[in-house]
Hints:
- The protein is of the alpha+beta class.
- It has helices at residues 6-12, 30-49, 63-69, 71-75, 96-104, 155-172, 193-209, 250-254, 280-291, 314-326, 340-349, 360-365, 382-391; strands at 16-17, 27-28, 53-54, 60-62, 81-84, 87-91, 108-109, 115-124, 140-150, 178-183, 214-217, 227-233, 239-248, 259-260, 266-267, 270-279, 304-308, 331-334, 354-358, 367-371, 377-381.
- The strands form 5 sheets. The protein has an 8-stranded mixed beta sheet with strand order 3-8-9-16-13-12-10-11.
- A hairpin with a 5-residue loop joins strand 20 (367-371) and strand 21.
- Helix 1 (6-12) packs across helix 9 and helix 6 packs across helix 7 (193-209).
- The chain is elongated, with a radius of gyration of 25 Å.
Amino acid sequence: MDENDHRSIGNRLELFHQQEEGPGVVFWHPRGLTLYRLIEGYIRRRMAQAGFQEVLTPQLLARSLWEASGHWEKFGDNMFAFQDGERAFALKPMSCPGHIQIFNKRLRSFRDLPLRFCEFGACHRYEPSGALQGLMRTRAFLQDDAHIFCRDDQIEAEVARFCDLLRAVYADFGFADFAVGFSTRPALRAGADAVWDRAEAALAAAAKSAGLDFALQPGEGAFYGPKLEFVLQDSSGRRWQCGTIQLDFVLPERLRADYVDAAGRKVRPVLLHHAVLGSLERFIAILLEHHRGRLPFWLAPAQIAVASIGAGQRDHAAKVAGDLEAAGFRVALDVRPERLARKIVAARELGIPEFIALGAREAADGTLSLRRHDGGQETLGLAQAIERFRHATPGTA
């Protein structure tokens, strides 16, 4: 296997593994779960800043709900389902019907809109065994699902808000730009042609208003509406479809979502489905391959390795590591009776971005010796180092 394949990188960095007894699922190791939670926490903060309220919906719902939404007809063969007496149930492949249930739980006013829900939805899809490929395609995954209930006159502003969010997020993860595809009505779809005409025109107008230059992708839309797909290019020139926003007039009708307008009438809201990353598992795979295992400082499971040069500096190294941890950094302490060169190699193999060596001189004058990847070194005080490291973390500089 290619050393830059995410599965090789994941093994080398001790992030995750997969095995025969769990086809299409992932065993996350401590370092891997740290990365997973860092991404999850980052997106959670971004969504809150963008005005979303986080919700949590059941993974298991009656088949009747999936039939009402149309997902059973479209995805039934790819859903994990079982019978409980006379009732059939299925694990959710996506979160939209659940979010509509929350919307429907109380009477909504036009003044409540736009209403934005987000969820880290644990989804399951029965992918054929031959299609499984590491983290790129799994049977169980976490999706950064979000849904916006809005009025027609709010569509453009919400699409523009999503595009601004995407640009900021992708830049923080090291992707400078993205391409956009506009996916139109598929052959098998729900809703009349007039509904699709209206949905496609509204989404195209919103995309143009947001300054997007998109390529048409005829027939590639969701069964309930057209979508914009955002495609990243990695460091090897490969293209990956990640984020998406979809405009939907169909599911609010099928699941009877409505709100009271200014005239006191009950009308259907527009539903915008969106995901910034898509599957977290797949995005982590893309991220690992894009950075070839050398993750940015803010994402590295261990950010700083602190190593003693000799036995006499063990206590000092432990104190420095503790000071850095108290400042909010993730630190790996190495006080093994090994040569410094071995410790440096071990830290590099685990993808730890920063390496601090502490010998007798550093212990005496209270400095830190930073060893760079190019073989050079730099001497800093603890406060200087902390300030530099903070500038390498999005939102803290």
